[in-house]
Amino acid sequence: MSKLNSVSVAFLSSVLLLGTSLAAHSEDAKTPQAEAKPASAVSGVKAWPTDEEVAAEGWEYSNDDDGVRVWRRDVEGSRVVAFRGETVIDAPIAKVVSVLDDTSRRLEWVHSAKETRKIRQVGTLERVEYNHTGAPWPVRDRDFVYLAKIALDRTLKQVRIAIHSVADEAMPEADCCVRGEIAKSLYILTSVENGTKTHITVEVNADPKGAIPKFIANIFQKSWPRKTLLGVKRQVQKEDVKPLKMVEDYFEGKPVAGVDTPAVVKTTAK
User: Fold this and answer.
1) I want to staple 177 with a disulfide (CB 3.0 to 4.6 A). Which of 29, 79, 95, 141 is the partner?
2) Domain extents for the chain?
3) CATH of domain 3-251
């Protein structure tokens, strides 16, 4: 692969690392990894699909690297593939959610992110965000505007984060960047091992747009879930990363303002 193509693939990896914030309020180093477990159940309640069910949805198993299991799926009418990653993180769910929620620290683990910020709070569990990702010459920077929605479920011990691109008058397209599109991004976090660990699945269908060849946009699909989830694993181990209180309180059965009952994410993205 040429130097330009290699750099472009690295850039695309960073482009699609965005969109991991909660609506509620970045060279990979080898780190000890918890073994990624196949689909299972929590307290007798089905928490995530079996491998057979994943395959029945059109996902093709790709590889298992550093404890991250990866699938890919062609998307009708799209020039890029969708991808799915799954692993277990050695931290409670409220701490993992804290990493995904904190836009002020995303530059610590999301490669090439230049700016991440909240545009507007829509509700307790919903907000619009902006992300600007740097790109190596001669590729133009990319930026994204997206809606993030969270749902909490005590029965399944889950947090679900659904993300898709939106237009917002507060953040029109700018000359600095090509406006990318997140058709759908879904994070499913499940508390396991008596609350000491978190099983996480991520599904993403995003297009950086612009004049990046299709084959380059798709080359990195095998490495993206691994880089993303290993980035979360490293960040969550930092001593100054604290559990997100809203999530912690919710799963302890305490009242949480704006969250009356568990909800199911309904994604309007295509």
Assistant:
1) 141
2) 3-251
3) 3.30.530.20
Report how far residue 96's alpha carbon sits from residue 243's, in angstroms, rounded to the nearest whole number.
7
Q: For residue range 177-226, list pLDDT tens digits in order.
A: 999 999 999 999 999 999 999 999 999 888 888 887 777 666 655 567 78
* Whether the model pTM is above 0.85: no
CA distance linking residue 243 with residue 247, whole number of Å? 8
